[in-house]
Amino acid sequence: MAGEFDELMARAQDLATLAAGRPEAERAEHLLGRVRYGQFLVAIVGEFKRGKSTLVNSLLGHEVVPSGVLPLTAVVTEIR
């Protein structure tokens, strides 16, 4: 996984370098900063009661979002 992150970081740096002096420069620098600090937006969507909360908990390595037999997360949830 570290290799993939290093590759993503290198590509974001390349993009910021190529965009320097252009209208896209600010956006490219913003992207580079998000990659550098590990800030990613991930949307998990799906049908009712299909394991979205369980998937989030599994990805994070511990129970952050409640999950169970009855619906527990019926609103948009942002995890930081």
Description:
The chain has 80 residues and is mainly α. The longest helix has 18 residues. Helices cover 49% and strands 0% of the residues. The two termini are 21 Å apart. It is elongated. It contains three helices and no strands. The mean pLDDT is 86.
Q: What keyword list fits this structure?
A:
mainly alpha, 80 residues
Give the C-alpha Rg: 17 Å
Residue fraction in strands: under 5%
Report the span from N to C terminus.
21 Å
Helical amount among residues, as a percent range?
A: 40-55%
Please outline the helices and strands.
Layout: H1 2-19, H2 25-36, H3 52-60
Helix pairs in contact: 1-2
Give a short summary of the structure.
The chain has about 80 residues and is mainly α. About 50% of the residues lie in helices and about 0% in strands.
